[in-house]
Amino acid sequence: MSERSIAIVGGAVAGLAAAERLAPHAQVTLFERQPYDRKRVNCGEAINDASVVPLTKTPANGFRNDIDGFDLRIYRDRTHGPSDEPIATARFDCPLGYITDRDLLEQQWAERLADNGVEIRADEAVKPDELRDLCRTHDYVIDATGQPSLSVRTFADAGAYTGNIVALNADVEGDFAGLVSHPRIFFEGYVGYAWLFPKSKTRANVGIGWAGEERPDDYFAALSAACRRNGIPVPDRAETNVYTIPRGPSLAPAETYRPERNVLLVGDAAGIANRYQGEGIVQAIRSAYCAAAAIIEGRPETYPDRLYELMQPEYRLAHLMRGAWVEHEDPELLAAIIRTLDGLTVEALTRSPRRVAVRLLRHPTVVSSLLADSGMLSRLHEAYTDNWEYTRNGVSS
After folding, report:
1. Rounded to a whole number, what is the distance in angstroms from the first to the last CA of the chain?
2. How far, in Å, are 209, 322, 349, 356 from residue 317 at the CA level?
3. Residue 86: helix, strand or coil by DSSP?
4. Parallel/antiparallel/unpaired status of strands 140-143 and 5-9
5. Cα(109)–Cα(55) distance, rounded to whole angstroms?
Protein backbone atom coordinates (compact mmCIF):
# COMPACT_ATOMS: atom_id res chain seq x y z
CA MET A 1 0.00 0.00 0.00
CA SER A 2 2.91 2.36 0.65
CA GLU A 3 3.46 2.96 -3.07
CA ARG A 4 -0.10 4.14 -3.62
CA SER A 5 -0.91 7.81 -3.99
CA ILE A 6 -4.03 9.49 -2.61
CA ALA A 7 -5.26 13.02 -3.21
CA ILE A 8 -7.60 14.54 -0.63
CA VAL A 9 -9.50 17.59 -1.82
CA GLY A 10 -10.81 19.68 1.06
CA GLY A 11 -8.82 20.31 4.22
CA ALA A 12 -11.50 20.74 6.88
CA VAL A 13 -12.09 18.04 9.51
CA ALA A 14 -13.24 15.34 7.07
CA GLY A 15 -10.21 15.74 4.82
CA LEU A 16 -7.85 15.97 7.77
CA ALA A 17 -9.32 12.79 9.28
CA ALA A 18 -8.90 10.90 6.01
CA ALA A 19 -5.28 12.03 5.79
CA GLU A 20 -4.70 11.00 9.41
CA ARG A 21 -5.69 7.39 8.76
CA LEU A 22 -4.19 7.07 5.27
CA ALA A 23 -0.79 8.70 5.87
CA PRO A 24 0.88 5.55 7.28
CA HIS A 25 -0.26 3.55 4.25
CA ALA A 26 0.15 5.79 1.21
CA GLN A 27 1.59 8.96 -0.23
CA VAL A 28 -1.05 11.54 0.68
CA THR A 29 -1.49 15.04 -0.73
CA LEU A 30 -4.14 17.25 0.84
CA PHE A 31 -5.53 20.32 -0.96
CA GLU A 32 -7.22 23.14 0.99
CA ARG A 33 -8.50 26.22 -0.82
CA GLN A 34 -7.83 28.57 2.12
CA PRO A 35 -4.61 29.25 4.04
CA TYR A 36 -4.99 27.67 7.47
CA ASP A 37 -3.79 30.74 9.35
CA ARG A 38 -6.57 32.84 7.79
CA LYS A 39 -9.30 30.23 7.44
CA ARG A 40 -12.82 31.18 8.53
CA VAL A 41 -14.87 28.25 9.76
CA ASN A 42 -18.63 28.41 9.22
CA CYS A 43 -20.08 26.31 12.03
CA GLY A 44 -21.11 26.35 15.68
CA GLU A 45 -17.82 24.64 16.65
CA ALA A 46 -19.26 22.17 19.18
CA ILE A 47 -17.74 18.68 19.00
CA ASN A 48 -19.77 16.07 20.86
CA ASP A 49 -17.06 13.38 20.80
CA ALA A 50 -13.61 14.94 20.87
CA SER A 51 -11.98 11.50 21.03
CA VAL A 52 -12.23 11.31 17.22
CA VAL A 53 -9.66 14.12 16.89
CA PRO A 54 -6.07 12.89 17.51
CA LEU A 55 -4.85 16.08 19.17
CA THR A 56 -4.16 16.81 22.81
CA LYS A 57 -7.24 18.56 24.18
CA THR A 58 -5.66 21.91 24.99
CA PRO A 59 -6.64 25.51 24.16
CA ALA A 60 -3.49 25.73 22.02
CA ASN A 61 -5.01 23.01 19.81
CA GLY A 62 -8.38 24.75 19.64
CA PHE A 63 -10.15 22.87 22.44
CA ARG A 64 -11.46 25.86 24.34
CA ASN A 65 -14.09 24.57 26.73
CA ASP A 66 -14.42 21.04 28.12
CA ILE A 67 -18.17 20.90 28.65
CA ASP A 68 -20.24 18.52 30.78
CA GLY A 69 -23.33 18.59 28.60
CA PHE A 70 -26.04 20.78 27.08
CA ASP A 71 -29.08 22.48 28.62
CA LEU A 72 -32.24 22.70 26.49
CA ARG A 73 -34.89 25.35 27.07
CA ILE A 74 -38.30 25.06 25.40
CA TYR A 75 -40.50 28.12 24.78
CA ARG A 76 -43.94 28.26 23.19
CA ASP A 77 -42.94 30.93 20.69
CA ARG A 78 -40.65 33.90 20.11
CA THR A 79 -42.51 36.40 22.28
CA HIS A 80 -40.64 35.65 25.50
CA GLY A 81 -37.98 37.83 27.11
CA PRO A 82 -34.69 36.97 28.81
CA SER A 83 -36.28 36.68 32.26
CA ASP A 84 -39.29 34.57 31.20
CA GLU A 85 -39.32 30.95 32.32
CA PRO A 86 -39.37 28.26 29.62
CA ILE A 87 -42.18 25.71 29.55
CA ALA A 88 -39.61 22.92 29.95
CA THR A 89 -35.90 22.37 30.48
CA ALA A 90 -33.70 19.32 30.10
CA ARG A 91 -30.02 18.47 30.48
CA PHE A 92 -28.11 16.03 28.29
CA ASP A 93 -24.67 14.87 29.37
CA CYS A 94 -21.79 15.03 26.90
CA PRO A 95 -18.68 13.71 28.69
CA LEU A 96 -16.48 13.90 25.56
CA GLY A 97 -17.78 17.26 24.39
CA TYR A 98 -15.84 20.46 23.70
CA ILE A 99 -16.58 23.89 22.35
CA THR A 100 -13.71 24.64 20.01
CA ASP A 101 -11.98 27.27 17.98
CA ARG A 102 -12.24 25.05 14.95
CA ASP A 103 -10.03 27.17 12.74
CA LEU A 104 -7.19 26.70 15.24
CA LEU A 105 -7.99 22.98 15.62
CA GLU A 106 -7.76 22.48 11.86
CA GLN A 107 -4.52 24.47 11.61
CA GLN A 108 -2.91 22.38 14.36
CA TRP A 109 -4.16 19.13 12.84
CA ALA A 110 -2.76 20.11 9.43
CA GLU A 111 0.62 20.87 11.05
CA ARG A 112 0.58 17.46 12.73
CA LEU A 113 -0.10 15.79 9.38
CA ALA A 114 2.68 17.76 7.67
CA ASP A 115 5.07 16.54 10.37
CA ASN A 116 3.91 12.98 9.61
CA GLY A 117 4.67 13.18 5.90
CA VAL A 118 1.42 14.44 4.38
CA GLU A 119 1.94 17.03 1.64
CA ILE A 120 -0.28 19.96 2.64
CA ARG A 121 -1.13 22.26 -0.25
CA ALA A 122 -3.07 25.05 1.45
CA ASP A 123 -4.38 28.16 -0.32
CA GLU A 124 -4.80 26.01 -3.42
CA ALA A 125 -8.30 25.54 -4.80
CA VAL A 126 -8.86 22.54 -7.07
CA LYS A 127 -10.95 23.22 -10.17
CA PRO A 128 -13.02 20.62 -12.04
CA ASP A 129 -10.39 20.08 -14.75
CA GLU A 130 -7.75 19.68 -12.05
CA LEU A 131 -9.92 17.13 -10.26
CA ARG A 132 -10.04 15.10 -13.47
CA ASP A 133 -6.25 15.22 -13.58
CA LEU A 134 -6.00 14.08 -9.95
CA CYS A 135 -8.24 11.12 -10.75
CA ARG A 136 -5.88 10.13 -13.56
CA THR A 137 -2.66 10.58 -11.57
CA HIS A 138 -3.67 9.12 -8.19
CA ASP A 139 -4.86 5.72 -7.09
CA TYR A 140 -7.68 7.28 -5.06
CA VAL A 141 -9.24 10.69 -4.55
CA ILE A 142 -11.08 11.61 -1.35
CA ASP A 143 -13.64 14.36 -1.96
CA ALA A 144 -14.07 16.37 1.26
CA THR A 145 -14.99 19.64 -0.40
CA GLY A 146 -18.38 20.36 1.16
CA GLN A 147 -21.73 20.96 -0.46
CA PRO A 148 -22.28 20.65 -3.38
CA SER A 149 -19.14 18.57 -3.71
CA LEU A 150 -16.48 19.22 -6.31
CA SER A 151 -16.93 15.73 -7.77
CA VAL A 152 -20.68 16.26 -8.13
CA ARG A 153 -20.05 19.58 -9.86
CA THR A 154 -17.45 17.92 -12.08
CA PHE A 155 -18.98 14.57 -12.94
CA ALA A 156 -22.71 14.73 -12.17
CA ASP A 157 -25.73 16.95 -11.55
CA ALA A 158 -24.74 19.82 -9.27
CA GLY A 159 -28.37 20.18 -8.25
CA ALA A 160 -28.52 16.68 -6.80
CA TYR A 161 -27.82 18.05 -3.32
CA THR A 162 -29.68 20.85 -1.64
CA GLY A 163 -29.42 22.58 1.70
CA ASN A 164 -31.41 21.24 4.62
CA ILE A 165 -30.66 23.55 7.54
CA VAL A 166 -29.58 27.17 7.13
CA ALA A 167 -27.66 28.51 10.12
CA LEU A 168 -25.88 31.67 11.24
CA ASN A 169 -23.27 31.94 13.96
CA ALA A 170 -20.66 34.30 15.38
CA ASP A 171 -18.44 34.77 18.40
CA VAL A 172 -19.41 37.41 20.97
CA GLU A 173 -17.94 38.81 24.19
CA GLY A 174 -19.87 38.79 27.47
CA ASP A 175 -20.27 37.22 30.91
CA PHE A 176 -20.80 33.49 30.38
CA ALA A 177 -19.29 32.21 33.63
CA GLY A 178 -22.51 30.50 34.72
CA LEU A 179 -22.95 28.64 31.43
CA VAL A 180 -19.46 27.33 30.73
CA SER A 181 -20.08 23.74 31.83
CA HIS A 182 -23.49 23.44 30.12
CA PRO A 183 -23.98 25.40 26.90
CA ARG A 184 -27.56 26.32 26.15
CA ILE A 185 -29.92 25.48 23.28
CA PHE A 186 -33.25 27.28 22.77
CA PHE A 187 -36.33 25.81 21.07
CA GLU A 188 -38.85 28.57 20.39
CA GLY A 189 -41.85 27.25 18.49
CA TYR A 190 -40.34 26.82 15.03
CA VAL A 191 -38.50 23.98 13.32
CA GLY A 192 -34.98 24.90 14.35
CA TYR A 193 -33.23 26.36 17.38
CA ALA A 194 -30.84 29.00 18.69
CA TRP A 195 -27.74 28.36 20.80
CA LEU A 196 -25.18 29.83 23.16
CA PHE A 197 -21.92 27.85 23.30
CA PRO A 198 -19.36 29.45 25.67
CA LYS A 199 -15.71 29.03 24.72
CA SER A 200 -14.61 30.67 27.96
CA LYS A 201 -16.11 32.74 30.74
CA THR A 202 -16.00 35.81 28.48
CA ARG A 203 -16.39 34.52 24.90
CA ALA A 204 -19.07 32.39 23.24
CA ASN A 205 -20.31 31.19 19.89
CA VAL A 206 -23.95 32.16 19.34
CA GLY A 207 -26.18 31.14 16.48
CA ILE A 208 -29.54 30.14 15.08
CA GLY A 209 -30.69 27.59 12.50
CA TRP A 210 -33.87 26.78 10.60
CA ALA A 211 -34.76 23.27 9.43
CA GLY A 212 -38.41 23.59 8.40
CA GLU A 213 -40.25 25.35 5.62
CA GLU A 214 -40.40 28.60 7.58
CA ARG A 215 -37.39 30.78 6.82
CA PRO A 216 -36.88 34.46 7.76
CA ASP A 217 -36.74 37.25 5.20
CA ASP A 218 -33.69 38.69 6.98
CA TYR A 219 -31.49 36.02 8.51
CA PHE A 220 -29.29 38.36 10.51
CA ALA A 221 -32.31 40.22 11.91
CA ALA A 222 -33.68 36.86 13.08
CA LEU A 223 -30.37 36.01 14.76
CA SER A 224 -30.29 39.43 16.46
CA ALA A 225 -33.86 39.02 17.72
CA ALA A 226 -33.07 35.54 19.10
CA CYS A 227 -30.07 36.94 20.94
CA ARG A 228 -32.11 39.78 22.49
CA ARG A 229 -34.99 37.61 23.70
CA ASN A 230 -32.55 35.11 25.26
CA GLY A 231 -30.30 37.70 26.89
CA ILE A 232 -27.33 37.07 24.59
CA PRO A 233 -25.03 39.78 23.17
CA VAL A 234 -25.87 40.54 19.54
CA PRO A 235 -22.92 39.82 17.22
CA ASP A 236 -21.53 42.13 14.58
CA ARG A 237 -23.01 41.40 11.15
CA ALA A 238 -19.56 41.50 9.52
CA GLU A 239 -18.34 38.76 11.87
CA THR A 240 -21.33 36.47 11.30
CA ASN A 241 -20.93 33.23 9.36
CA VAL A 242 -23.71 31.77 7.20
CA TYR A 243 -23.71 28.12 6.23
CA THR A 244 -25.97 25.39 4.90
CA ILE A 245 -26.10 21.92 6.39
CA PRO A 246 -26.63 19.36 3.63
CA ARG A 247 -29.28 16.78 3.00
CA GLY A 248 -29.00 13.66 0.93
CA PRO A 249 -29.63 11.16 -0.53
CA SER A 250 -26.45 10.97 1.48
CA LEU A 251 -26.18 7.19 1.70
CA ALA A 252 -26.85 6.35 -1.93
CA PRO A 253 -23.79 4.42 -3.21
CA ALA A 254 -23.56 6.57 -6.35
CA GLU A 255 -23.25 9.63 -4.12
CA THR A 256 -20.54 8.23 -1.85
CA TYR A 257 -18.29 6.23 -4.19
CA ARG A 258 -17.53 6.66 -7.90
CA PRO A 259 -15.68 3.46 -8.85
CA GLU A 260 -14.97 4.51 -12.43
CA ARG A 261 -12.77 7.30 -11.04
CA ASN A 262 -11.92 5.86 -7.61
CA VAL A 263 -13.43 8.86 -5.83
CA LEU A 264 -14.81 8.45 -2.30
CA LEU A 265 -16.93 11.26 -0.81
CA VAL A 266 -16.88 12.05 2.91
CA GLY A 267 -18.46 14.54 5.31
CA ASP A 268 -20.51 17.36 3.82
CA ALA A 269 -19.44 16.30 0.32
CA ALA A 270 -21.34 13.05 0.92
CA GLY A 271 -24.27 14.92 2.50
CA ILE A 272 -23.48 13.51 5.94
CA ALA A 273 -25.03 15.45 8.84
CA ASN A 274 -27.50 14.80 11.62
CA ARG A 275 -30.97 15.45 10.25
CA TYR A 276 -32.65 16.95 13.28
CA GLN A 277 -29.99 18.89 15.19
CA GLY A 278 -27.54 19.65 12.40
CA GLU A 279 -24.40 18.20 13.98
CA GLY A 280 -21.82 17.40 11.34
CA ILE A 281 -18.26 17.55 12.69
CA VAL A 282 -18.11 14.14 14.34
CA GLN A 283 -20.14 12.61 11.51
CA ALA A 284 -17.69 14.00 8.94
CA ILE A 285 -14.70 12.58 10.80
CA ARG A 286 -16.31 9.17 11.26
CA SER A 287 -17.22 8.97 7.58
CA ALA A 288 -13.62 9.83 6.64
CA TYR A 289 -12.24 7.12 8.91
CA CYS A 290 -14.74 4.70 7.36
CA ALA A 291 -13.58 5.56 3.82
CA ALA A 292 -9.94 5.31 4.83
CA ALA A 293 -10.46 1.84 6.33
CA ALA A 294 -11.99 0.62 3.07
CA ILE A 295 -9.02 1.95 1.07
CA ILE A 296 -6.44 0.55 3.48
CA GLU A 297 -8.02 -2.90 3.14
CA GLY A 298 -7.97 -2.53 -0.65
CA ARG A 299 -11.78 -2.78 -0.79
CA PRO A 300 -13.07 0.72 -1.60
CA GLU A 301 -16.24 -0.81 -3.05
CA THR A 302 -17.29 -1.70 0.52
CA TYR A 303 -17.35 1.94 1.62
CA PRO A 304 -21.04 2.67 0.80
CA ASP A 305 -22.25 -0.31 2.83
CA ARG A 306 -19.89 0.50 5.70
CA LEU A 307 -21.10 4.08 5.73
CA TYR A 308 -24.73 2.93 5.66
CA GLU A 309 -24.16 0.68 8.67
CA LEU A 310 -22.32 3.46 10.50
CA MET A 311 -25.04 6.04 9.98
CA GLN A 312 -28.15 3.82 10.14
CA PRO A 313 -28.94 4.26 13.87
CA GLU A 314 -28.42 8.01 13.71
CA TYR A 315 -30.49 8.52 10.56
CA ARG A 316 -33.26 6.27 11.86
CA LEU A 317 -33.51 8.24 15.09
CA ALA A 318 -33.15 11.59 13.36
CA HIS A 319 -36.03 10.74 11.02
CA LEU A 320 -38.25 10.17 14.05
CA MET A 321 -36.99 13.09 16.14
CA ARG A 322 -37.39 15.46 13.23
CA GLY A 323 -40.95 14.19 12.90
CA ALA A 324 -41.72 15.42 16.40
CA TRP A 325 -41.06 18.92 15.00
CA VAL A 326 -42.32 18.67 11.45
CA GLU A 327 -45.45 16.56 11.89
CA HIS A 328 -46.72 18.28 15.04
CA GLU A 329 -45.04 21.69 15.45
CA ASP A 330 -46.45 21.63 18.97
CA PRO A 331 -44.19 23.21 21.63
CA GLU A 332 -46.13 21.53 24.44
CA LEU A 333 -45.57 18.09 22.95
CA LEU A 334 -41.92 18.87 22.31
CA ALA A 335 -41.63 19.97 25.95
CA ALA A 336 -43.16 16.68 27.12
CA ILE A 337 -40.73 14.70 24.97
CA ILE A 338 -37.76 16.68 26.23
CA ARG A 339 -38.77 16.13 29.86
CA THR A 340 -39.07 12.40 29.14
CA LEU A 341 -35.56 12.25 27.66
CA ASP A 342 -33.95 14.44 30.33
CA GLY A 343 -30.67 12.98 31.60
CA LEU A 344 -29.72 10.92 28.55
CA THR A 345 -26.31 11.45 27.01
CA VAL A 346 -25.99 13.29 23.71
CA GLU A 347 -24.59 10.08 22.20
CA ALA A 348 -27.74 8.16 23.22
CA LEU A 349 -30.00 10.97 22.05
CA THR A 350 -28.45 10.95 18.58
CA ARG A 351 -27.32 7.36 18.00
CA SER A 352 -29.38 5.00 20.17
CA PRO A 353 -33.00 4.55 19.03
CA ARG A 354 -33.42 1.77 21.57
CA ARG A 355 -32.49 3.92 24.57
CA VAL A 356 -34.72 6.75 23.38
CA ALA A 357 -37.60 4.31 22.84
CA VAL A 358 -37.17 2.80 26.31
CA ARG A 359 -37.45 6.26 27.86
CA LEU A 360 -40.50 7.20 25.82
CA LEU A 361 -42.31 3.92 26.52
CA ARG A 362 -42.22 4.73 30.22
CA HIS A 363 -44.57 7.61 29.41
CA PRO A 364 -47.46 6.15 27.37
CA THR A 365 -49.36 9.44 27.31
CA VAL A 366 -46.46 11.13 25.53
CA VAL A 367 -46.14 8.22 23.10
CA SER A 368 -49.86 8.30 22.39
CA SER A 369 -49.75 12.02 21.63
CA LEU A 370 -46.66 11.60 19.50
CA LEU A 371 -48.21 8.84 17.38
CA ALA A 372 -51.63 10.48 17.08
CA ASP A 373 -50.68 11.71 13.63
CA SER A 374 -50.60 9.83 10.34
CA GLY A 375 -47.37 11.57 9.33
CA MET A 376 -45.65 10.39 12.49
CA LEU A 377 -46.90 6.83 11.96
CA SER A 378 -45.52 6.94 8.43
CA ARG A 379 -42.18 8.11 9.78
CA LEU A 380 -42.12 5.23 12.25
CA HIS A 381 -42.69 2.74 9.44
CA GLU A 382 -40.07 4.44 7.25
CA ALA A 383 -37.52 4.53 10.06
CA TYR A 384 -37.73 0.81 10.75
CA THR A 385 -37.81 -0.22 7.11
CA ASP A 386 -34.72 1.96 6.50
CA ASN A 387 -36.70 4.12 4.11
CA TRP A 388 -35.28 7.60 4.52
CA GLU A 389 -33.55 9.61 1.78
CA TYR A 390 -32.21 6.41 0.24
CA THR A 391 -32.87 2.71 0.75
CA ARG A 392 -30.78 -0.16 -0.47
CA ASN A 393 -33.48 -1.24 -2.92
CA GLY A 394 -33.23 2.19 -4.52
CA VAL A 395 -36.56 3.61 -3.31
CA SER A 396 -36.38 7.17 -1.98
CA SER A 397 -38.65 8.23 0.86
Report:
1. 40
2. 20, 8, 8, 9
3. coil
4. parallel
5. 7
Distance CA 13, CA 284 (A): 7
Contact 314, 69 (CB under 8 A): no
pTM (two decimals): 0.93
Strand duo 63-66 + 192-198: pairing: unpaired
Answer yes or no: are the C-beta atoms of 68 and 93 closer than 8 Å: yes
Rounded Cα distance between 169 and 42, Å, is 8
275 alpha-carbon distance from chain centroid: 9
164 CB contacts (<8 Å, ≥6 apart)? Answer: 211, 244, 245, 246, 247, 273, 275
Torsional sign, CA 367, 373, 374, 378 = negative
Beta-strand pair 69-74/27-32: unpaired
Q: Specify whether the CB–CB gap between 143 and 170 falls below 8 A.
A: no
Q: How far is CA 10 from CA 35, 67, 126, 292, 344, in A?
A: 12, 29, 9, 15, 34
Q: Which of 217, 220, 213, 226 has the alpha carbon at shortest distance from 163? A: 213
Pick the closest to residue 152 from 242, 246, 243 (CA basis): 246
- pLDDT tens, the chain, 397 aa long: 457 999 999 999 999 999 999 999 999 999 999 999 988 787 889 999 999 999 999 999 999 999 999 999 999 999 999 999 999 999 999 999 999 999 999 999 999 999 999 999 999 999 999 999 999 999 999 999 988 889 988 987 655 555 567 889 999 999 999 999 999 999 999 888 999 999 999 999 999 998 777 889 999 999 999 999 999 999 999 999 988 776 655 788 888 999 999 999 999 999 888 877 778 899 999 999 999 999 999 999 999 999 999 999 998 998 898 888 888 888 999 999 999 999 999 999 999 999 999 999 999 999 999 999 999 999 999 988 888 777 765 444 3
- The 3 state secondary structure assigned to 4-46 is CEEEEECCCHHHHHHHHHHCCCCEEEEEECCCHHHCCCCCCCE
339-342: long-range contacts (C-beta < 8 A, 24 or more apart)? 339/88, 339/90, 340/366, 341/90, 341/92, 342/90, 342/91, 342/92
